[in-house]
Amino acid sequence: MERSSEHSALAALLAEARPTPHEDFIKELDERVAAGFSPRSRVGSSPLAGFAEWVRGLSPQRLLVSGAVALLVIAVITVAMTSGSSGPSDERSSGTLSLLNRIGPDDSSDSAVAPPAVSSPPVEESSAAGESASTEQGAASLPSRHRDIERSAEIGLIADPDDVADDSAAVFAAVHDARGIVLHSTTTSGKRAGADFDLLIPSARLGDALAAFSAIDEVGSRHDATEDITAPTISTSEKLRDSRARIDGLLAQLSTAETETEMSAIEAELDRERHHASRLRAQLDKLEQRTEFSRVSVSIETGISSTDSGGSWGIGDAFHDAGHILGIAAGVTLIGLAVLGPLALIALLAWLAHRTWVRAQRRRALRDA
Amino acid sequence: MSEAAIAAQEAAKEDASVDFERLYRSSRDDVYAYAAGLLRDWIAAEDVTAAAFERAYRKRSRFDPARGSARAWLFGIARHAALDELRRRGRHTDLSVDPVDATSAPGTIESRSDLRLLIEGALDELEARERELVALKFFAGLSNGEIARVVGISASNVGTRLNRTMDKLREACDGAL
To answer: Considering the entire predicted model, what is its pTM?
Structure first.
């Protein structure tokens, strides 16, 4: 009882000893509160410290939303930068136009895609001068020896289903005009109409043939390739020449042979060498054929066509573009998460470690004070 | 706790976000008293009080009434600010008031002001964690439950420790009460 009353008296004394703030301090603090602790009221605070303070003031939910928004903005900016100002739809149109331009009457794409060391003859000149002109033109560009170039091309045409049969007939006609060979062809009618052709076109007439194919219908895609086969051709020619020289030598030896055994041995060697020379000749013929004829693949498809919507940009294109943009945005977001995820994890661990350390320091400060 | 403080607490429970202006008006002097009682440094107490309210203002949207009263939340922030101040000072705690020799003869106590000096001297002699409890209870006017929430121990533990601390103070003032 006595202890309780002493505690009450002590409590009263403590209440009397309660520290009170100075009036000047109260006035200053009231002003700062009224000003909402504006950044200007804080002395020596940097913009970075202000940003850190703002981040600290955010709730975890708002922090997550802010991070997601920042990521989205980065994704949109990246998409805008990668797509350019014209947008995917325009890009596709311009791509088609550029293809059409490349395969127009002044076709020079063949020489454009050839390696720098290769001097590919212009198509117009080669077709005008005949099949042998290409080798002559090649020889003109390289004084010592012409280059042996193998060419191939793929061209994709986009047609309405009703036009597939006519387009296929036009392809056959173009092949005939170019004196080419149809290796394989497939034509399908109906809802999924389409056609595929594997062709051999004389290299000297390749430019004309591709121009003719491109004129049949809308070009959806085109791919040209060249390969310089000069080295294997020269190598095989030299081997063949050596082999023939060796055959001549063996024939000379055979005429001077005196014994049966000696003659038999030379004849056996001669047979082997003739067989070898025959193989080399076939090899050389194939290489020459690869130079003289170009492999061309023509496909007619009835997929996305600008003619479906009357040649103008329609709702289908809008969906396609939207899907394209969403795909890119999703990809950029995924990459962003892949980069930011580990960084965020490290930052989280660092923050947790710092918080634990600060708490321990505070406990120690209270204990040691 | 003053009536205004109780009203502020009730209002804060009703609102999802803390009414900072009301909380400031009702708790400003209490926060200062707590900081000064713990630190025993009036200048540092002012800095801590200002820092506590600024931090509370920046974090006011994060206040969750379901996790305790606004005052308990505010004093949690003030406690961190005060402990940060203690950390900065390390062991060298400057005392603005010269410590009073609490072991001086009780017979010399002649007035109530002498008694107050004796109490303040006894407070200086207390450990910081004990002084903190006294400051929260008698200077800031927090309930045992609120103190428990601020300090991070149970309410019954708060009561036990406060009793021991009061016994220490009573012994220091033995005969004078």
So the answer is: 0.46
